Fold this sequence. Notes:
The chain is built from six helices and no strands. It has about 130 residues and is mainly α.
Amino acid sequence: MLSKNLNKDIKKRIIKAIIWSVAVYAADTWTYKKEDTKRLEAFEMWVWRKIEKISWRDKKTNEEVLQMVQEERSLTDVIWRRKKNWIGYILRGESLLREVIEGRMIGKRPRRRKRLGMLNEFLKESSYAELKK
Length: 133
């Protein structure tokens, strides 16, 4: 990846095909927080900086780096799309996993704050994404 012989477009295609797929393996099942999102965005910027051989001491902003590689931040969008597709796939079928995600399990609820389920997180994120646009 750090070879000077490879074209920048080829490097970007390799990153999107291999590095992103390994980095977000099973991300559609994650319930992640703001901290996790920040780490993923930091990892994405770290990869783009490595392509351009930009040190953290060079004082380049993230926007400048993204302009240099002619890209936009896309890793969290990829995770969002995968998560949306996975939840849609699960909710179309009749399975135990669907009941767990919808919170229809039989039994007594424990005494404490109700945990945020995957479906609640998805609905919260989708409403946030709509507001963001």
